[in-house]
Amino acid sequence: MNKFFPSKIITKKEVLESNLNYALIILNRPIQIKRELIETLWNNSLINITVDGGTNRWLNFLKNNNLENKLKHPTLITGDLDSCHAESLKFFTQTKVIQTVDQDETDFTKCLRVLEPFINELKLDHTVVICENSGRLDHIIANINTLYKNQLKSNEISRPVFMLSSTSISFLLPEGKSEIHIPECAKKLWCALMPIAGPTTVSTEGLKWNMKNFEMKFGGLVSTSNKYDGISDFVKVECNLPILWSMGICDEI
């Protein structure tokens, strides 16, 4: 049984209490998550990576919040560096830069590959990726594809990857049985299951609209805009292929 506890990522108190080992990645999207949560996630991660233009986003976030000299510098800067400004590289001069030039892969995919040696070295439990979902549908689809490709790796170099925005958290549920803990404040919000790996047989418990051995597929049923039953603390999902889970998050830290 795979168990997921999103509250240990989306609430400051539980981030501090969880004692989990994680990596934090900043992609090239606006940073709109609340400052207090971002600071907590950044300060408590074992390795911080800014990806190409995400380095500019991070520097702007620091300057806008007067944090230039208060937070540690990124551990690594990765990407093909076609959108990372010289000013950003100069500011983070002590940070190791790993240029990943393969144009057949996205910078996000290549970043996870760079992260692989650290998974066992740092005993990482998961990776948190800061990435708003609005504006570029092509980028959103590419990021989901990266999650799926990461899921296909062996367990030795694959850990859960959580994509966190200001309004949602999204991650892949692997083949088999999973439980997702639903924070009390999120039980009135939306959730969704999407069959990104092809036609997928799914059974659920804890949702308003549950499924029982139901085939989900694009061109057929996809469980977007679902809700919780309002009673269960966990949603249970069983699937024969990896499936994308996305959920709204509480407006609190």
Automatic annotation (TrEMBL):
Keyword Kinase applies: yes
All residue ranges annotated as the Thiamin pyrophosphokinase thiamin-binding domain in the record: 176-243
Coiled coil: none
NCBIfam families xrefs: thi_PPkinase
Record CDD domains: TPK (cd07995)
SUPFAM superfamilies listed in its UniProt record: Thiamin pyrophosphokinase, catalytic domain, Thiamin pyrophosphokinase, substrate-binding domain
Entries under SMART domains matching the protein: TPK_B1_binding
Keyword Translocase: no
Alphabetic keyword roster: ATP-binding, Kinase, Nucleotide-binding, Transferase
Protein name as catalogued: Thiamin pyrophosphokinase thiamin-binding domain-containing protein
A GO molecular-function annotation: ATP binding
Protein source organism: Polypedilum vanderplanki (Sleeping chironomid midge)
Any one GO biological process: thiamine diphosphate biosynthetic process
Taxonomy of the source species: Eukaryota, Metazoa, Ecdysozoa, Arthropoda, Hexapoda
